[in-house]
Amino acid sequence: MAKTDTFQCTVITPERKVLECESTFAAFPAHDGEMGVLRQRAPLVCKLGIGILRVEGDGEKHELLVDGGFAQVVGNCLTILTEASKEARDVDVDATNQALVEARAMKITDDASSAARNNAIRRAQVQLKFAK
After folding, report:
1. What would the CATH number be for the domain defined by 3-86?
2. Which of 19, 30, 43, 95 could bond 11 through an S-S bridge, CB–CB 3.0 to 4.6 Å?
3. HEC-encoded secondary structure of the chain
4. pTM of the model as a whole
């Protein structure tokens, strides 16, 4: 594909820059569903959910688990700021299974504890699916 069909994609966590590449397509988990990005996409700022970031470009494909944060698209640049990001090989399946058991056992006493339980379950389920 011609260079003019690409845009810059950068993924940053508090610890480091995880990914920086030229991309032809990216899809990320917004808080309310998946968003796709191509070159010349209208500017946006979006809250991230928990899920898989998929990036394609120059014959390469990248998949990263992202856990909340924000996405910004401006001037043919997609920037993902996230608290945590990992590749499938970095998911500890045993620890994640244990986290899922503990999340399901969490007591619900109010709306906040219900939301925390649901987020913990979702986080563990996404990680397990991603690891497979």
Report:
1. 2.60.15.10
2. 19
3. CCHHHCEEEEEECCCCEEEEEEECEEEEEECCEEEEECCCCCCEEEEEEEEEEEEEECCEEEEEEEEEEEEEEECCEEEEECCCEECHHHCCHHHHHHHHHHHHCCCCCCHHHHHHHHHHHHHHHHHHHHHC
4. 0.84
